[in-house]
Design goal:
By secondary structure, the protein is of the alpha+beta class. Helix content is about 35%, strand content about 30%. It has a 5-stranded antiparallel sheet, covered by helices on one side. The protein has a 5-stranded mixed sheet with strand order 6-11-12-3-13, covered by helices on one side. The longest helix is centred in the last third of the chain and has 31 residues.
Length: about 500
């Protein structure tokens, strides 16, 4: 009786090992991630290879990291324990998501992710059990980051005959593999240009896609850490023979003045409009672009949907800049200066017309000089590799603090609490309240300082155009913006 019972149990176990997921492949759950090892096969043959995936199911709003985590984080690591002669290949990393965390950008995964590795079976391995163990460590983050680690085990079998697939996980692993990045089909190169990392692809077939504005997203993710500034925009330019992407260089490149390696490896992710409205097509390619001494130059900037730059003429850009500056007077951030100018006009209402006109011209000169300085500083920083734009100085906490205190004191002065001219207030605001040409000039400077947090209609297209132009053209557009701001006075 007992022998029959044991025989039935043995048959039942064999059936499970052939047709189902092994009993020992149970998930292990931490507070944030459920992890397990799954395989595309139940039995493996000597001299073959098979695929095992680390499956991670991450709780909502949390994420783990890609091989290059970006500005912060740590990539998932797998330490395999395999029988003698077995070897595990590297992780085949799926295309990561860009995860903004405050001012930082990280690369990682959310929800459910499969990290696949190929396992190589030696030729002379005898039939029998195949235990596979892995110690896995990861960093899982939301607003805080938690390091976690688990020990996982998967029991397969070595067979003398043909391998048998896992009916549950084999289709899943095949689907993941189908979406992995493929090797890029075009020649590529990389270079460092004026503090920017550039990667170039010789792909004439893409010229038409750019001309037709079919591309909705195109960017590269470097595999190496510290090579680019991840949060900065990547500028795409193209020509008839290919295209390139440039982005501000990271700390490793800035320190050495060049790429600290012979080639730049990474991913190129491309999204295009699909054949049906509202659909899109995504392609992901892995590349290893050799570092070149001379960069390849393409002149035409490519603008993705949502970018405020458009293919406008210089005349249109100047007109838009002037109109934007004019409308900037109606923005809330300029109201303190408007009140100061209104009080100045009231004080001179019975004065000579020439004096009022001179005061307006001095105010306009202060505005124009300030815009010229702003443009020159912005262009100098961009040429040094900083991908910055309108209002860049507001990224400085010191500047924001100073302008906050200045506006607070100006507000107290407008209430009549004290006389600025006799106070210890900053020289710029004091001169802005004094009578005469110097006071009007200082008021113009103050108007530009307080206007930079705001953006008026027409400004986006004009400034976006300016950032892609030679220095002289960019300066003209900034001066047109200043002329619009000063025009009412």
């Amino acid at each position: 009786m007992s022998r029959g019972y044991m025989s039935v149990c043995a048959v039942f176990v064999v059936i499970l090992s052939l047709w189902g997921t092994p009993l020992s492949a149970k998930p292990v759950a931490t507070d944030h991630v459920e992890a397990e090892l799954v395989s595309d096969t139940l039995e493996v043959a000597p001299g073959s290879s098979f695929y095992i995936a680390l499956r991670q199911k991450i709780i909502p709003n949390w994420h783990t990291y890609w091989k290059n985590p970006g500005d912060s984080g740590e990539a998932t690591k797998i330490e395999w324990t395999l029988p003698r002669g077995f070897q595990a290949g590297p992780i085949a990393w799926p295309v990561p998501e860009k995860i903004p965390v405050g001012p930082l950008i990280n690369y990682g995964y959310s929800n459910e992710i499969f990290l696949i590795s190929e396992i190589f079976v030696p030729d002379n391995v005898p039939p029998g059990p195949l235990p596979i163990e892995a110690h896995v460590k990861w960093l899982v983050c939301e607003e805080i980051c938690i390091p976690e680690e688990v020990d996982l085990r998967l029991d397969l079998r070595i067979t003398e005959g043909e391998a048998s697939s896992d009916l549950i996980w084999s289709p899943v692993i095949q689907k993941v593999q189908a979406n992995l990045p493929t090797t890029i089909p075009w020649p590529s190169s990389s270079a460092v240009v004026q503090g920017q990392v550039q990667v170039t692809f010789d792909a004439p077939s893409w010229a038409q896609a750019f001309h037709q504005k079919r591309v909705t997203r195109l960017e590269f993710y470097p595999e190496g850490e510290g090579l680019i500034r991840y949060a900065q925009p990547q500028v795409l330019r193209y020509g008839d023979t290919g295209f390139n992407l440039t982005v501000a260089a990271g700390y490793k490149v800035i320190d050495e003045g060049k790429l600290p390696l012979s080639s730049l490896a990474g991913l190129l992710v491309i999204e295009e409009r699909g054949p049906e409205p509202g659909t899109s097509l995504r392609s992901a390619y892995s590349f290893d672009a050799p570092v070149m001494a001379e960069p390849v130059t393409f002149s035409t900037p490519y603008l993705f949907p949502g970018q405020e730059v458009s293919n406008i003429s210089l005349f249109q850009a100047l007109l838009f800049a002037f109109l934007g500056g004019l409308l900037l007077n109606l923005m809330p951030c300029v109201f303190p200066v408007l009140s100061m100018k209104a009080l100045s006009f009231l004080q001179h209402v019975h004065g000579h017309e020439k004096e009022v006109r001179r005061g307006g011209l001095a105010y306009g000169a202060g505005v124009l000089v300030s815009f010229a300085v702003l443009a020159l500083v912005l262009m100098a920083l961009r040429s040094a590799g900083d991908q910055i734009g309108w209002g860049f100085q507001l990224q400085s906490p010191i500047f924001v603090a100073l302008i906050t205190y200045l506006m607070f004191l100006v507000g107290l002065n407008l209430t009549g609490l004290f006389d600025v001219g006799q106070s210890v207030m900053g020289a710029g605001a004091s001169q802005a309240q004094q009578e005469g040409l110097l006071g009007s000039f200082a008021t113009g400077i103050l108007a530009v300082i307080v206007a930079t947090p705001c953006t008026a209609p027409f400004m986006g297209a004009a400034l976006g155009f300016a950032l892609f132009q030679p220095a002289f053209v960019s300066l003209l557009i900034f001066l047109a913006l200043g002329a619009g701001l000063a025009a009412p006075y």
